């Protein structure tokens, strides 16, 4: 451990929403955080997104900050109130709304628990893929309408289906692994311009050069790309029209990656189904067609860690803080130059 990371009079602040704090960083984890860092741990609940960091709570002696959902952005003003701050451990996924340019200018180390959050999202996605392959949404609609869903339909069942994965993110890679481990024998295609053929082969998938090729071949398209200017409406009306009849779009990434109007048209026609945990806009208006179509399920951004799963993120951040104090490599380190490519 280097001298500059020694305890001394330094402290650790845990800053996140008042509802999230007890789930993500309960007392036993705060105690563990203190043991690993040798610092006094100060939980600071934030209500309604108010910027309490520069207020009575005080961050003057804090060198490690554990953040989560509900923590205000780390602006220059906030950082001025935390002159000793050296490291931020984010007990959630994306840091894009949290980390400002001022953080990088101060050379503050940043870590994210995105890898820990990837588990619940991948599990949610794999469940949706299995249900989509079974034709669960149209089958449920037919049953509710008093009819029976015909057995042994040609486009029903998981065996031999082709799943197109858009983006080899933390979550995308877990989804690929889950599909490869399935007894269904899925064919898995990947579109990601940053992945080579060799890397795709190591993941156990086939890389395609064009998104159009993925859409033409896929029964199910699942989205795991980051939200960037380049990915906005990446899955546009033209690409949606290429997906096989009876296909399904699954989005647990960001709503802006899909052309909402184009998807609505395809689903309204009955040609495609959709499982959407994110939308554009978010939330959709109460009267939006996607909320009432029988072949569409919209959930309120719940694929990521929820409830009891939140502690996974806290545990990851706590262990990262321990690694930082010991001078070890951070497993969830976020670099300024790669931030645009992250979710």
TrEMBL record:
**Pfam families under this entry?**
2-Hacid_dh, 2-Hacid_dh_C
Matching entries from InterPro entries are given as: D-2-hydroxyacid_DH (IPR050857), D-isomer_2_OHA_DH_cat_dom (IPR006139), D-isomer_DH_CS (IPR029753), D-isomer_DH_NAD-bd (IPR006140), NAD(P)-bd_dom_sf (IPR036291)
Q: Which residues form the D-isomer specific 2-hydroxyacid dehydrogenase NAD-binding domain?
A: 137-303
**Key word NAD present in the record?**
yes
Positions of the D-isomer specific 2-hydroxyacid dehydrogenase catalytic domain: 61-304
Q: Which UniProt keywords apply?
A: NAD, Oxidoreductase
NAD is among the record's keywords? yes
Task: Give the family per the record.
Answer: Belongs to the D-isomer specific 2-hydroxyacid dehydrogenase family.
Q: Please give the name of this protein.
A: 2-hydroxyacid dehydrogenase
Q: Where does this protein come from, organism-wise?
A: Streptomyces hiroshimensis
